Amino acid sequence: MRNSVIRWGLILVCGCFDAAAAQDHIRKRYEHILNWLPADSESLTVLDCPWQIPTDADRKNDKNRIRRPFDVSFQDFHLRHMFNGKQRELLAGKTIKRWISAAKDFHIAPPPVEAEESVVSDSYSLRYTGVHIIEFEPGSGFAASELLTNLLETPAQGLFPAAGKLDVMGHDVVEYPAMHMAENRPRGGRETKATAPLIDTWFSLTFWVASPKPNVLIVATSRTVLEETLKGITAPSPAAFPVESAEWNGIDPRSKVFGIRRFPRPKNASDLSDLRRFGADASAFTFSIDNSQSNAVISIHRANPQARRRVEGILFEHVENTSRKVTSTPDVFQIQLDWKDPEGSQNDRPPDGLAFILLTWLGYAVMI
Q: What is the mean pLDDT of residues 42-57?
């Protein structure tokens, strides 16, 4: 995954919400999926908004794709890493009803020792152990068997192995390398015919793909986390992000787009998405987007002064034309911003770069 530099504007909005309401109206609303998740998940994203998948060509030609609704930006970010070419064509026109992601163990993978001197400066390969549960609208034409069959046709190429079919807990699973992730990676003059294939594999992820229920697609980054999720379907458990978790307090109970990121202890030095850098410390961050997508909520939990200054600095450095309000208690630091214009009407699209900032703090991207 290529390194990225923040150059976009940023806006976030926040408020205080009743803990009981959040527990009653958010987790219970999605517990039929959340109870599948591994108990030790650190990051959670819920995108409960329909999205019709465009063709790959339409996506690339979308001049407004930086300023999309948050849920579309998140889903497209993940989907283009997972599928490309014919796979994307098979999904085009199908409507995603809901997308829920959970992950842990975010880190930057070290480059292959044999190719270390050939890697372009400031390049990185982000890794995580996670699962994406994608629900398609019934009747939208999603055919899991067609997608899995196409994935199985992925041939060996360079150091990438061919896709393979597995039986995992009685479910057909395809393990396949997303070699297209290396197509646009940075390349340098120090690469050789021997090191280029090594760097290609370093930039790419392997996915385990299954469809255990009609209109449900599961995409995992490891067989282990896929097995844990399939076990959760058979024996659901409320252990992942339970209702008593304090993080729910910072989320609007009406929101259909929200996320939680817990920061493990001890800190992983190779996790550059972790807010706890430059002396900052916190236990978690949460966000939620209001249903009009005209404002958002961000809360930093148990943040020390360095973390508060760091978050406020990052946000305000990239904010333009917004109202702002900062509130703070010993447990939660919040920033409230709104991107409605002075006359009260709403912008038709979210501010530039907000989705990328949230994806970073969830663990899926890095600010350099």
A: 90
